[in-house]
Amino acid sequence: MPACRLSAGWALPVEGSPIAQAAVLIDPDGRIARVGPEAEVPAPPDVPASRHPDAVLVPGLVNVHTHLELTGLGGEVDDAEFAEWIRHLRERKAARAPDAWAEAARRGVADCWAGGVTTVADTGDSGAVIRALAELGGTGIAYQEVFGPHPEQCATSLAALVESVTRSSRFASERVRIGVSPHAPYTVSGPLYSGTAAWARGAGLPIAVHLAESPAETQLLRGAAGPFAEAWRRRGIPAPAQPGCSPVAWLERHGVLGPDTLAIHVVQVDADDIARLARAGSAVAHCPRSNRRHGHGAAPLGRLLAAGLRVGLGTDSEVSVGALDLLAEARAARELAGLSADGALELATLGGARALGLEGEIGSLLPGKWGDIAAVRVEPGTADSLAERVLESRRDHVVATYVGGRQVYRRPEA
Question: Taking the model in full, what pTM does it have?
Answer without folding.
Answer: 0.96
